[in-house]
Specification:
The protein is mainly β.
């Protein structure tokens, strides 16, 4: 395959940005996010957050870590060739083991 005619200096064009219904609270610091394809147009969005709290003058510490899992499906809009994302369900998981004795 000859790829010599392909322009390499053009960045991809953003066609649509998915906006959440509710943004995470400001004290939640995103540490990791992943998109996992489950097949048949379905995806799981994984996001990990450190929950921060102020502890003294201009000092912050991690007080908890949480994971948010969201199931979504990409489908064709009725009567159109456009795609739309349908959010199905979100689950919240608390991940910190506070102490081991």
């Amino acid at each position: 395959m000859d790829v010599s005619g392909i322009k390499t200096n053009n960045a991809p064009v953003l066609r649509h940005a998915w906006l959440e219904h509710a943004a995470p609270p400001p004290e939640w610091n995103l540490t990791n996010n992943n998109l996992v394809y489950l097949g048949d147009g379905r995806f799981c969005i994984h996001r990990s957050f450190n929950i921060m709290a102020e502890c003294g003058y201009a000092d912050w510490e991690i007080v908890d870590t949480v994971v948010l899992l969201t199931g979504v499906e990409v489908v064709r809009a009725p009567g159109s060739s456009r795609l739309r994302m349908v959010e199905h369900k979100s689950k919240f998981l608390d991940c910190v083991i506070r102490s081991l004795i």
